[in-house]
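FW: tagging you since you asked about this chain on Friday. Here's the raw sequence from the shared folder, copied in full. Didn't touch anything.
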Amino acid sequence: MKAQVAFEYILVLGFAFAIIVPGAYLFYRHSVGAGDEIVSSRIHKAGIDLITTSQEAFAHGEHSWITYSTNLPEEIVKIYVLRDYELIIEFNSGGGTSQAIYFSDVVMNGTICGKNADNNVVCNVSNSFHTGLNKYRVESKGDYVSITEIV
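HL: got it, structure written out here
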């Protein structure tokens, strides 16, 4: 009789673990994926807002400027303008370093410009990029828009 009770106890424990372990694994995978989605949506919002603000400043005319404030997630590595019309946000994700690319209808420029390995002009929007609260001055210079961080 004692052997039967012990066997039933082990059987019930085994069944409970057979349900709990896969359930915990599925919950963990879901929560990790949800975190990446939240970061991606915050990055997407920052990119779209910077492009929209650039177009608004350009539409207002030369010497007009708009201050754009955002709280950037810690996964962002850097933000720069490539080939005058592409705003690129590099960030770390579960699969490594990724890029979010946003295209503008107006010419954009940053603080420090140089050439990359492909001989394309690259302009950083900040002298020393950091995450957290960032304020950018988006100013129309007539034929282009300058995006610089307010320190």
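FW: The first strand starts at residue 65 and ends at 72.
HL: agreed, and The radius of gyration is 25 Å.
FW: great, closing this out.
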